[in-house]
UniProtKB/TrEMBL annotation:
PANTHER family: METALLOPHOSPHOESTERASE, ZINC-DEPENDENT ENDOPOLYPHOSPHATASE. This is Serine/threonine protein phosphatase. InterPro entries: Ap4A_hydrolase, Calcineurin-like_PHP. It comes from the Bacteria. Residues 28-219 form the Calcineurin-like phosphoesterase domain.
């Protein structure tokens, strides 16, 4: 896949495999896992806004985030600030999906001793972004309760409202947008929340199409989207690769955009 000015142009093989369908006349952008990479998010949003101005031609524009806004990267708080601002002032029809990392945070807020495993997969970085001294995984439960209380004190109420309002699934036309994927063989309306948030190999290795073309994050290979005949994975490991990606969907057309932090 070649890149010019942040626009990823699929190779012939990838383009031929890209699943296309109808989005009911809309222009849709879906963004992969951000993971606290605020600079990459800001640059990608600038590219999406410019692209939408050129292409929308009066069509409604939807912007869908596929979850995992926090953890791993250094600026979870700034990412949530930006997304909350978009929910109130952004120019797009906005949908923010819940990722397994947001669920990890909510579980920690509910029962920090039982959900201390969040420290192992990004909770440390998120606590630090809110100015909270992070406990170690195996610290005394009282330390985790202290960290939870400090987080609630430091976190703006709007951020908690944002986390609690996240969606699990969005369907538009021939496409459905989720965080991790869907359980093969299970109708979309009967999918379990845990699978939508956590499923990996059973979905990634599955070659059977779902009822709709699935756009998802959660699993990544490298800095390029994972394009398959029945799904598109748009997580490109921003916290490690430095590349945050989005897919642009129109009736019968697929395109990709990406961004790095300035100077990377």
């Amino acid at each position: 896949m070649a890149a010019w000015g942040g626009l990823l142009v699929p190779t012939d093989r990838q383009a031929s495999r890209a699943p296309v369908g109808s989005v009911d006349g809309r222009l849709i952008y879906a963004v992969g896992d951000v993971h606290g990479c605020y600079d990459e998010l800001r640059n990608l949003l600038e590219k999406i806004a410019a692209d939408a101005r050129e292409r929308s031609a009066g069509r409604p524009v939807s912007l869908i985030f596929c979850g995992d806004y926090i953890d791993r990267g250094p600026a979870s708080r700034e990412v949530v600030d930006a997304l909350w601002w978009l929910t109130r002032h952004g120019p797009f029809d906005l949908h923010c999906l819940k990722g397994n990392h947001e669920q990890g945070l909510l579980d920690y807020l509910d029962n920090p001793a039982e959900a201390a495993g969040w420290m192992q997969f990004g909770g440390l970085e998120t606590l630090r972004s809110y100015g909270v001294a992070a406990p170690e995984l195996y610290d005394d439960p009282d330390e985790h309760c202290r960290a939870r209380d400090d987080l609630l004190e430091s976190m703006p109420a709007a951020h908690l409202k944002f986390f609690e309002s996240l969606e699990l699934m969005v369907g538009i036309g021939d496409y459905v947008f989720v965080h991790a994927g869907v359980r093969p063989g299970v109708p979309l309306e009967k999918q379990a929340a845990r699978d939508l948030l956590w499923i990996r190999q059973e979905w990634i290795e599955n070659e059977r199409p779902a009822e709709r073309i699935v756009i998802h994050g959660h699993s990544w290979i490298d800095h390029e989207p994972d394009v398959c005949p029945h799904r598109i994975g748009i997580d490109t490991g921003a916290y490690e690769t430095g590349v945050l990606s989005a897919v642009r969907i129109e009736d019968g057309q697929i395109g990709f955009l990406s961004a790095r932090a300035s100077g990377r």
